[in-house]
């Protein structure tokens, strides 16, 4: 699997620490979303019913982890000044977590849906890293 | 927290996919280990007993995640040819997971112990990325 | 423990079903937050160090469940038209989940902090039930 | 989904606190059982194999939560005097948790089985609230 | 740690299979309860506050696993004819799970409390193995 | 289900305690692997698609527990002198956990694969008990 080009530059692992266990990194959500995408690709390429059942079981778990890691960023990393500077942030996170849920990557095994999720996480990731440079 | 220099270059997020959900990345273990390190730093700097209890609770969880992510790499990513080429790999993973456990970062709140864990994960990480280039 | 008066009327359990497993109820977050409040009360009334350690362990778990149940409501129940009608909803959920986290009921054993969390959940609960009547 | 009439009156959320984290409420089991029921309804109405696999995955999780919440009530809330006054309580809980398991709502996607579970939880709920009024 | 004599004869691992995943063995609860006992012993022998906090964190988890494994036996393995033949079974399980909870091994670090739990599990274990021989 | 003869003699539950919560027993991995085997048998004997989906869901969970219990033994119980005396131990654990994963009992519902896993756990079990007698 080749990652869409836009995802690679911003995901170097860095650490941040302003609270108990204050290490945040969008890579956690991104890795799980890449897993979701890979599962969709393999699901479409394989008709075996046992394989497909397993793919859906695992995709459900990975997509739940995407939601969890995004929720943590939204609640624990981003603060009031960030939401003032980036007023679209709330909607971005709400849409991204919806894209990982029943109306997105949980409810669909279409790789294109997983790509939408990856793109949305990349938008969040860009804002995240921009806030680290101030 | 500044990361030790040696950790940064090899941890760009990439994806690998040769099995169902075949995305592996040492960054998952690394991020949790960075969290363990940050918790140790804050623990040493804070005498409040409530804060310290919380730090130990959270450190226990994060260190367990370090072990889990390393175990997954050892069992699911690395294959027989890797172990032939890198005969030290088994011991490296055994030592790294011990360093995340009772005799390491779970059993100690000393940041130096967490640093040993980070260094060991970096050794694994270098081998991991070397195997991706062949 | 007496519940603040304002919490009781809106929390009759009802069910909603417009998606796979589409049952939502703010009572799930509320019950866990009541537990957090009760733990804080007992923590303040008991000096035994074993009891206090256990209280902090359990409070951490319950507060995490509060966050989880609120995140589920925010992502899975509420839709675009709700956010248009109640533009304060995003901030309400962000503040409520922060109040359950490190800067709120996880980071403090003060019953007054738990009360702030209960009040915020009640605000969300009122909007939730208002959306059910249309 | 309309709830059976008999379920609604007894499920106002209240709190109880006689032990560390002593908040108990049958609503926790009830909400998960309502979810199981809703999943069965949707399963029967939808022939898509992906949807059906997801419904079974989620039903398994929700039914497990029903069992867990009921077990907690049986072990942690109810005391010896309750079991003396309501000698049928042990059997009620055993039957209810069986109805959430392999021989009940886990093993079947029939909404009628989920209804039996809801009815059994309602019997437990009535006894629970009766014990609160003494 | 030497196990009390009465525990050893009945705990040979055997398998039973009359339902999906129908393998039951009281050894699962017993091993976790032995862990709880060992933690209590070490807690009493060590005054280091970090060690003691960790002991309480881990004891809480192990005791929860004891409860879970016992609940599974009570709901999933034992059937109506067993409860007729052994009318004390319901109370035995209720007392055993209470002994693993707040009023028992969770709420106390006294090895004598853990011993009571081990004894109660042994009583259950004897009945379990008796039902296997018919 | 009859267990292969070779598995029974070495699995008497014993306890070991040289670290916080130092109770180890290969029976934990073995019981879950027996469950995986039983699920495979029932899967092959039943064509009902709902039953088969549930079997795959539960097999995935049980196989994950096999991996977890084996990883714990490998990291937490076995020490450097053990690995010197039994140089095949690393490979044994790596193969056993692979046999519980995607290339083994997770990826296949063939009872013969589950038997290979049981045999491998028995090899580990024999070494484990041999180390207890010194």
- The overall pLDDT of chain A, averaged over residues, is 86
The CATH topology of chain A: Four Helix Bundle (Hemerythrin (Met), subunit A)
CATH superfamily of chain A: Nickel-containing superoxide dismutase
Task: Count the DSSP helices of chain A.
Answer: 5
Counted up, domains of chain A total 1
* Uncertain runs of chain A: 1-20
Order of helices and strands of chain A: HHHHH
CATH architecture of chain A: Up-down Bundle
Report the count of strand segments of chain A. Answer: 0
Largest sheet of chain A: none
* Rg measurement of chain A, Å: 15 Å
Question: What is the overall silhouette of chain A?
Answer: elongated
CATH domain class of chain A = Mainly Alpha
Oligomeric state, counting identical vs distinct chains: homohexamer
Helix content of chain A: 55-70%
Beta fraction of chain A: under 5%
- In terms of structural class, how would the helical and strand content of chain A be classed? mainly alpha
Q: Which two chains share the most extensive interface?
A: E-F, 32 and 32 residues
Distance between the termini of chain A: 34 Å
């Amino acid at each position: 699997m080749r990652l869409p080009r836009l995802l690679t530059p911003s995901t170097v692992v860095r650490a941040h620490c302003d609270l108990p266990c204050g290490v945040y990194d969008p890579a956690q959500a991104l890795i799980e979303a890449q897993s979701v995408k890979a599962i969709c690709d393999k699901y479409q390429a394989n008709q075996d019913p046992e394989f497909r059942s397993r793919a859906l079981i695992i995709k459900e778990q990975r997509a739940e982890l995407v939601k969890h890691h995004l929720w943590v960023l939204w609640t624990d990393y981003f603060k009031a000044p960030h939401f003032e500077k980036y007023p679209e942030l709330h909607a971005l996170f709400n849409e991204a977590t919806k894209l990982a849920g029943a109306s997105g990557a949980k409810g669909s095994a279409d790789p294109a849906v997983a790509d939408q999720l990856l793109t949305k996480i990349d938008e969040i990731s860009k804002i995240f890293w921009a806030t680290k440079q101030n």
